[in-house]
Design goal:
The complex is a heterodimer.
Chain A: E1 3-6, H1 10-20, E2 25-29, H2 43-54, E3 58-61, E4 64-69, E5 72-76, E6 81-85, E7 88-91, E8 95-96, H3 100-103, E9 106-107, E10 113-115, H4 116-124, E11 133-136, H5 141-151, E12 157-160, E13 172-175, E14 178-183, E15 190-195, E16 198-203, E17 206-209, E18 214-215, E19 230-232
Parallel strand pairs in A: 1-2, 1-7, 2-3, 7-19, 9-14, 10-17, 11-12, 11-17, 12-13
Antiparallel strand pairs in A: 4-5, 5-6, 8-18, 14-15, 15-16
Chain B: E1 5-13, H1 17-27, E2 33-37, E3 53-54, H2 64-72, H3 76-83, E4 87-88, E5 92-96, H4 99-114, E6 120-123, H5 124-130, E7 140-144, E8 148-150, H6 152-165, E9 169-172, E10 176-182, E11 185-190, E12 194-202, H7 208-214, E13 222-232, H8 234-237, E14 243-246, E15 256-259, E16 265-268, E17 272-273, H9 284-297, E18 306-317, E19 321-325, E20 332-337, H10 341-358, E21 398-400, E22 405-406, H11 407-415, H12 423-430, H13 443-454
Parallel strand pairs in B: 1-2, 1-12, 2-9, 5-14, 12-20
Antiparallel strand pairs in B: 3-8, 4-8, 5-7, 6-7, 10-11, 11-12, 13-16, 13-17, 13-18, 14-15, 15-16, 19-20, 21-22
The chains are: A alpha/beta, B alpha+beta.
Amino acid sequence: MTVAVVGAGLTGLRLATQLADREPVVLVDRVPVLGGHAGYDDPEVRRCERELRDAEVTMWLGATACRWQQNRLLVVGHDAIRWLPARHLFVATGARPATAAELGLVGERGAGVFAATVAQHLLQTRAVHWDRPVVIGNTWWAPEIAAQMHAGGAHVTAVLPRSSESPEWADETWAGWTPHRVHGNPRVDGLEIVRDGDTATIACDAIILADGPHPIRNIEGAIADDANGVTYLPPNPATDDPAAIIPMPMPQTPTEVVPTP
Amino acid sequence: MAPGVQTADVVIIGGGVVGCAIAARLSVTAVSVVLIEATGDVANGASKANAGVAVSHYGETATLETDLVSASNPRWEDLCHRLDVPYRRIGAIMVALSDAEQARLEQLHAALGALDVRSVPLTAGEARAAEPLISDQVVSALSLPDEGIIDPVRLTVAYASLAALNGTQIVLGEPVVGIESAPQRTIVRTARRSLAARFVVNAAGLGTGEISALAGGEPLVMWPRRGEYLVLDREFGRRMRHIVFGTSLPDAKGVNVTPTTHGTVLVGPSSADTQEPSARVTHPETIDAVLASAQRLVPAIDRRWAIKLFAGSRPASDERFRLRFDAMVPALLHAGSRSSGVSTSPALADHAVTLLRGAGLEAPDRPAAHRMLKPTPRLRTVEHPESLLALDPGYGQVVCACEQVTAAEIQAALEGPVPARSIEGVRKRTGATYGRCQGAICMVGVGFMCANRHGDSPNQVLVNDGGTVGTVR
């Protein structure tokens, strides 16, 4: 019976090549190009693609896996919306930045707070401009976004809660400070940060969330650790052996949570 | 009549659930109606940020408010079916964790019986059998089977949409700056227009006092009562069957754990009167306290399931429910509620029309008026998703993967009778960007769709009411 692999980045591609020797595989990705974060021109991506084509693996690209229910995967694409029966679901959907809630960021809800992934796409269009952005965190999105903002003449400030370094991509760095509170409505105009009881406010016109990364997990029914017939794969695993892949650290399911005394 | 003055039988000030419900009700009569909302969208105040419960009771002695709650409650299934609004009568369990709370529940049960509101006492075992996630510290409980969950924003937008379909003019983004009473008519002014009306309905929520003052009416004092909430992931939400209410004691308001029609769970609210200009601010210590109170009811609640924190403000006043003419300005009808706006809205709108008719408004019902909205099928909830592509190719494009919102649904929100003007407007109507990644994947797509629809540059797309994506260079 078929296995479904969602995510055609390096992790999903490698897994699909190995599974394809044993059973029918359907590889699904939201984006209509293989490679994910690694990019299509990555030699390993191209090697995997050749193997998958040779093995005649089915690829549904530009299609979104939405729901896992009784060993069926709901896949939504331009050509069809269909239920794929599958023995097992492997989820390799990559990572996203931490959200404001995950950072514990409180305060006003002004416009101008964006996930780094959003900022990245907006900047790529060159249709969007910020003068004094603050970037929270130093994941791989941060340098790329900072470079594009610099090209637009911006002054880029970094806030790095768990670091003492000043990265090259920032004009100004607040290392060891924790982002705390957003100011400004209807647009953001400041980010309050704290360290050891001290408080400072950075004037800004955008707050880019580039901390984390957290796993993207959005296939309904395949989210909890104990979801039936599901294996999560972390982005960029240290090993190519799917048997050795360690599941992502996920929130425990509510039934397993020990009541707090 | 002065040039440039438009006439209407009724001008409604305020695009919250109360104003929009009255507009919808008046729109099926023969009168002409204009609804004026100060902000850029309907449902931008308390109607946007509340727990989404259509309650079966609110208060324990018979008042106009409790009558309207009771009259509205049996109508939800039919109304929400006609207006394409998510509603489920899932029932609530009110939990007692101490002898004092148990005594309070017994008292409430007796009072609700006198009001003909259904409630059933439960033992601790029965409560936990009905809702396994309830704390094992529960002493007893009260089942309230007629409590329901509703999408309060979709309800408000639907009321406004029905009104618009029936010819009501919906004016957005224009604060009322002047109201002048003249014989037989009242002139309502914004910066851009003047409207001469026979009656003015003041449904301005937190702005009720200001509108009354502009009209020379009674001094009505309103203040924001902030409630802070956490939103928990659907993965937690699917494990809950009922609303779980804490028991309120005189010195402590209970916190609630409320499944939503989005599938998530709301934990809250805190309750604090505030003079802060922006009452939609969250505070870490308040959120911690809300979480701790909720965990006493449902210990499995864990902060790690929180996908979003938010604060809303209810319009508090010394008069908790107000549906009456002004004592000084006879053509001014005040309509507002501290907390029961959603739950009273169907019957409140009927009663408002009765009052207006009693004051001389000729408003015969029009049998030919629209009473239904064309439903927009939703990928996440439709029974047979595989059939959607035949309706519209836009269903083949999932924009928000967390909430399973497609391009077809977003386009419908951008083109509806009361269209979304901002990314937040799309979120309110579809749920897009509201999920566990909070728009990290889809906000760009939603923004571009807004830009294309409204002819804005991607930089100047509105995120919320007045705040743009980018800064003007």
